[in-house]
Design a protein that fits this description.
- The chain is an alpha/beta fold.
- The chain is about 35% helix and about 20% strand.
- The longest helix is centred in the N-terminal third of the chain and has 13 residues, at about 65-75.
- About 45% of the residues are buried.
- Mean pLDDT is about 90; it is low at about 1-10.
């Protein structure tokens, strides 16, 4: 089933904080033909179910059995169970759970909010690249170090902000799990290139949306338009909460 016209603009159907990511993806996922999509760390299916409703076939790889159970329930409830496939596994061992030939096979691979928590971001991206067909696209989104520093600072936590600036755990005594990584744009670009992918320009994710969400009376559509206008421009994108880029397998 091809993507429906009513679902062609994913950016228009998501919260403003995610608008930049899906605006970048729209030319691919709304092009009018179904794609084979791999969603690494896709968890409970926030992206997968949406893409399946647009007509795409989506394989979600996630280490959490509970998250995959939620994914299956959401897909069935949305009427797209046949187009969503949950596989338990780790991003740095994709070849073991979604074997592909030498030319990969997926048209699009998502790696959103994953590099912060995996054991080895470089290995995960290499595995992701191998799963793509030549000419396929990787969508990579991660937390932005500069945005995290400023968020902690304006929240009144200068010690934690300084720790993040210096790439240290901002709250080692409170942490029950390893600290999440944050990336500078150059760091993320270098990782993507080292995986054998050709990155395009990067965007800021949630430049102002998280700030304006708490403001009484903020018009959601106006926030979305502002977010899209700022996402690709420095200095605004430099202090966004997250980073996003599309990269191609040669």
């Amino acid at each position: 089933m091809p993507p429906s016209a009513s679902a062609s603009s994913a950016a228009d159907q998501l919260p403003a904080r995610a608008a930049a990511v899906w605006a970048a993806l729209d030319p691919l996922v709304g092009a009018g033909h179904p794609l084979r999509v791999l969603d690494v760390g896709g968890g409970s299916g926030n992206s997968a179910v949406r893409l399946a409703r647009m007509g795409h076939d989506v394989t979600v790889v996630d280490p959490s059995a509970d998250a995959l159970a939620t994914l299956n329930r959401r897909a069935e409830t949305a009427g797209v169970g046949s187009r969503v496939h949950g596989v338990q596994g780790d991003g740095d061992r994709l070849h073991e759970v979604v074997p592909t030939g030498p030319d990969g096979g997926y048209d699009l691979a998502l790696c959103h909010s994953v590099l912060e928590v995996v054991d080895d971001p470089a290995t995960t991206l290499r595995e992701l690249a191998r799963a793509l067909r030549p000419g396929g696209t990787a969508s990579v989104a991660s937390a932005n170090r500069a945005g995290a520093v400023l968020a902690r600072a304006v929240a009144g936590h200068p010690v934690e902000a300084l720790a993040l600036l210096e790439d240290r755990d901002p709250a080692p005594r409170r942490a029950r799990r390893p600290a999440r990584r944050r990336f500078a744009p150059d760091d993320l670009l270098a990782l993507v290139e080292a995986a054998g992918l050709q990155p395009g320009s990067w965007r800021g994710v949630s430049v102002v949306a998280d700030l304006l969400d708490v403001a009484s009376g903020a018009d959601p559509e106006a926030v979305r338009r502002l977010e899209l206008a700022l996402a690709g421009s420095s200095p605004y994108r430099d202090v966004a909460a997250g980073l996003h880029l599309l990269a191609t397998r040669p």
